[in-house]
Every structure is written in structure tokens, then in C-alpha cells.
């Protein structure tokens, strides 16, 4: 698939079933990349998933499509607490294993940056990436994110102890 054939758009309630499939597949294929487990996500009713997909002034989930199939997802949440309104958190980034390395994640990142720019007053984007997710970290760095700190002992999966890298980028870069 050529990168130019990937379209990114904001998802809505009607996309809940497709979103659920992609989210579950990414949680199952990369369990160490996420705080939410596949088991936890499977317990959420479709109506609850649909409600979370309703775009608003402080949040949106983007989907990357090729040939009508949802291949990747990314959620943006604008902080609404006084003094933090300039920040957007990026989370839940995932691409189906069969679509990795084909420009889907890059398209999602470009779409996320463009969408964040539509929110008045936003100056920076923030995210966290698990230490095990080297490809994801490289993706974020290609799009201008830089590590500002690392939280040791951030997540435990059984006996495995994981650190989390905290990253940020200004929305407007020179």
C-alpha cells in the first residue's frame, strides 16, 4: 500500500464496531504497549465504545483507512483544566500488524498534528511510550517529539517491570 493511499479522518459513533476490532487487535498483538489490557477492553459494551468516539471540543479519535478498511487509530485529548488548556495528550496509537511499515502511522501522526492545530490555543502535544516500543518511539521522534523524562517502574505485567518515556513537541515548529 502506498502511503498516499491512506486517508485519515475523525471517527464517530458509527465507527465503533470497526474501531473496536482494530483496538482489540492492537492490544492483543502488543500487550506491553498499552495500559489497557485486551481482556479489560473486551468487557466494554459497544455502546460505551461508541460514546467515547463522539468527537468534541476536547477530544477526537482519528482513523487511518486504505481501500475502505480501518487500519490504524489514534486518540487526542485536550486538557480542559484551567492552566492546562494549551496541552493535548496523544494516546491509544495503534496500527494493525498487517499494515505496519506501510505509512499508516505516519499518516495518523500528520492527521493528529493537523487536527490539534484546529483547536485554538493549543501549543504542545504530549504522549507516553513504553520502553519496549522502539518503533513507536522512532515514529514519534520523526514527527518532532522528544523525550523529556522517563518514569521507572511505571507499569507491571506479571513479573515484568516497565518504564515509560514521556515525550512532547511544540505544535508549531520552526
From TrEMBL:
SUPFAM superfamilies tied to this protein: Acyl-CoA N-acyltransferases (Nat) (SSF55729)
Domain N-acetyltransferase: 6-172
InterPro entries reported for this sequence: Acyl_CoA_acyltransferase, Bact_Acetyltransf, GNAT_dom
Organism: Deinococcus navajonensis
Catalytic activity, EC: 2.3.-.-
Entry GO MF terms: acyltransferase activity
Protein name per the record: GNAT family N-acetyltransferase
Organism lineage: Bacteria, Thermotogati, Deinococcota, Deinococci, Deinococcales
Family matches, as Pfam families: Acetyltransf_1
UniProtKB keywords: Acyltransferase, Transferase
Amino acid at each position: 500500500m502506498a502511503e498516499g493511499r491512506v486517508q485519515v479522518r475523525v471517527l464517530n459513533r458509527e465507527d465503533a464496531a470497526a474501531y473496536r476490532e482494530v483496538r482489540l487487535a492492537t492490544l492483543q498483538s502488543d500487550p506491553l504497549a498499552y495500559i489497557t489490557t485486551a481482556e479489560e477492553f473486551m468487557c466494554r459494551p459497544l455502546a460505551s465504545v461508541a460514546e467515547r468516539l463522539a468527537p468534541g471540543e476536547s477530544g477526537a479519535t482519528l482513523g487511518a483507512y486504505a481501500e475502505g478498511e480501518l487500519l490504524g487509530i489514534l486518540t487526542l485529548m485536550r486538557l480542559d483544566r484551567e492552566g492546562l488548556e494549551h496541552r493535548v495528550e496523544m494516546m491509544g496509537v495503534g496500527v494493525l500488524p498487517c499494515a505496519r511499515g506501510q505509512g499508516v502511522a505516519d499518516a495518523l501522526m500528520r492527521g493528529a498534528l493537523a487536527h490539534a492545530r484546529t483547536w485554538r490555543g493549543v501549543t504542545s502535544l504530549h504522549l507516553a511510550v513504553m520502553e519496549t516500543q522502539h518503533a513507536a518511539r522512532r515514529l514519534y521522534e520523526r514527527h518532532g517529539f522528544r523525550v523529556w523524562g522517563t518514569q521507572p517502574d511505571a507499569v507491571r505485567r506479571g513479573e515484568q517491570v516497565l518504564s515509560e518515556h514521556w515525550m512532547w513537541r511544540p505544535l508549531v515548529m520552526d
